[in-house]
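Exam revision sheet. Question 4 asks you to relate a sequence to its structure. Input first:
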Amino acid sequence: MTSRRIVSNEKNFLEKDDQTKFSPSASEKSNITPAVPAAVIYKLLGFTLAMVAGPIGTYFLTLNTLFRGGLLCPSKCGSSAKLDIGNSTWAGATAAVMANVVLIAYVVVAMNEDEGESRPTTEKAKKGD
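Answer key, structure tokens:
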């Protein structure tokens, strides 16, 4: 059996892994800025809240106001009792529409933000010509 001979000028795996070209030198400050701007995070949180609260709120708001219906209670309750049961199908459809409205609004805001970033580059190119 042969064994590998260790040469003194050859680096082992641990020494190769200890390269300093990726870490900043002592005179340089490390870049600790976040990768995503805070405004983008706030927009995402706002649209997340809107995606949760909007459809649920729309469902219960339309169920209890717009699509309110009164059904006679079965014979167990007596003939004069009414249940305030709304049409949940239409209220659910309205909530689905609201979810789509929030989604479309997010896409529009994201597209406008993306155009805003590329617009100065094209203006600089036009001024340079």
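Marking note for examiners. The two ends are 71 Å apart (CA to CA).
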